[in-house]
Amino acid sequence: MSEFWLISAPGDQENLQALERMNTVTSKSNLSYNTKFSIPDFKVGTLDSLVGLSDELGKLDTFAESLIKKMAQSVVEVMEDAKGKVPENLLANGVDLTSFVTHFEWDMAKYPAKQPLVSVVDTLAKQLAQIETDLKSRTAAYNTLKTNLENLEKKSMGNLFTRTLSDIVSKEDFVLDSEYLITLLVIVPKPSYTQWQKTYESLSDMVVPRSTKLIAEDNEGGLFTVTLFRKVIEDFKTKAKENKFTVREFYYDEKEIKREREEMSRLLSDKKQQYQTSCVALKKGSSTFPDHKVKGPLLRWLKVNFSEAFIAWIHLKALRVFVESVLRYGLPVNFQAVLLQPHKKSSTKRLREVLNSVFRHLDQVAAASILDASVEIPGLQLNNQDYFPYVYFHIDLSLLD
Fold it and tell me: What is the enclosing helix (H) or strand (E) of 226?
């Protein structure tokens, strides 16, 4: 399971023995895999400041978890059809998330334990806020590019009545720059090809003989050219409609067609160069020009900063255990943190019962600590069914799957 319980108990002899009993029972019953979770000694300050810090850490914990979920989802969206390779891009310090959590070590260089706790928390908060700001701007740019490209791709799909014709027609299909003649494009249903060939010259006066040519087809019909005098355009359209031939409104503008093709190429190039892409095929007749998958700056940024955000999140969990342990068990600082990884979802209820039984004596200890310190500890309600006699935090990596 990719679920962890991070707990702590006082570090005195009685509770160290309780931890040993917990390890023995959970191991024999195959309930969980347990390891010590090392947390450095921090400058504590006053209990009042710790209460305020406890609330701030709770909010920051929720924010960090939400952020890494968004980043994981962004990786999934950016990788598109390569989703099987998503896990290799969701790492922490180059290792899988489970390994990082189970072998966690506090990063003294990045978050010096000698600094006041409030400074360490402030560093983490600023780091996560900056990552979120960058994520918003980068994903917004990606989504804009993707939307523009999809809109252009939609124009190259659909049937002959709606799709763009710029990638179908060529200059040679038209009579251009003529004062008297014009080339029209007519959509003819497939069953009516023979009728078209027999009748198009007589649909109106002044139709150029043998001027029709099939230049494209879809499942329903074909796109034919026909050249005629400009003065009979409306008459020809009317007669064509009566025979169930549809004149497609189209004017060959070489500059506009070139602009549209260049825009598509530019967007494809931008997406290919800047982001992880899926295969997008542009068709011209029977030719296809597939895009290629590349690992671009957005995916690299997501990979690096997902790791940074995840690492920051686990450091926040460690800070929460430290602060809550001091508030719960009092001064001087003396507690042992343990990381439990339940083996099965079905065993969590039994595991909870074991922990509550082993540490039930801490109910009285915690209550006495509160009375002695005259401090209200957030979340510590002895009659609350969600209250645990030990410090407890949950880490659920399945939310990132």
Answer: strand 221-229
Q: Choose among 146, 137, 154: nearest CA to 267.
A: 146
Cβ atoms of residues 362 and 389 within 8 Å: yes
Q: pLDDT tens across 144-203, in order? A: 888 887 777 777 777 899 888 888 899 999 999 899 999 999 999 999 999 999 999 999
With contact defined as beta carbons under 8 Å apart, do 44 and 333 qualify?
yes
**Dihedral sign of CA atoms 247, 253, 254, 257 in order:** negative
pLDDT for 260: 77
Distance between CA atoms of residues 302 and 312, nearest Å: 15
Q: 142-176 burial, b for 16+ CB within 10 Å, e for fewer?
A: beebbebbeebeebbeeebeebbbbbbbeeebbee
Yes or no: say if 327 and 117 are a contact pair by the CB < 8 Å rule: no
Contact (Cβ atoms closer than 8 angstroms) between residue 291 and residue 268: yes
- Interval 290-349: pLDDT, tens: 343 435 688 889 999 999 999 999 999 999 999 999 999 998 999 999 999 999 877 889
Which DSSP category does 285 fall into? T
From CA 352, how far away is CA 131, in angstroms rounded?
36
Please give the Cα distance from 367 to 371 (Å, whole number): 6
E strands along 254-388, which residues?
281-284, 287-290, 335-342
Q: Which residues 6+ apart lie within 8 Å of 356 measured at CB?
A: 388, 389
Spell out the alpha helix ranges (H) of 288-345.
297-329
Distance CA 4, CA 33 (A): 10
* pLDDT tens-digit readout, 298-310: 888 999 999 999 9
Distance of CA 65 to the CA centre of its chain: 14
With 0-12 / 13-18 / 19 or more C-beta atoms within 10 angstroms meaning exposed / middle / buried, residue 183 is: buried
* Better-scored residue on pLDDT, 55 or 165: 55
Q: Is 226 left (phi over 0), alpha (psi -120 to 50) or beta?
A: beta
Residue 114's pLDDT is 93
Residue in the block written with tokens 């500059």: 255
AA identity, residue 113 = A
CB atoms closer than 10 angstroms to residue 133 = 10
pLDDT of residue 377: 40
* Mean of per-residue pLDDT scores for the chain: 85
- Higher model confidence: residue 258 or residue 240? 240
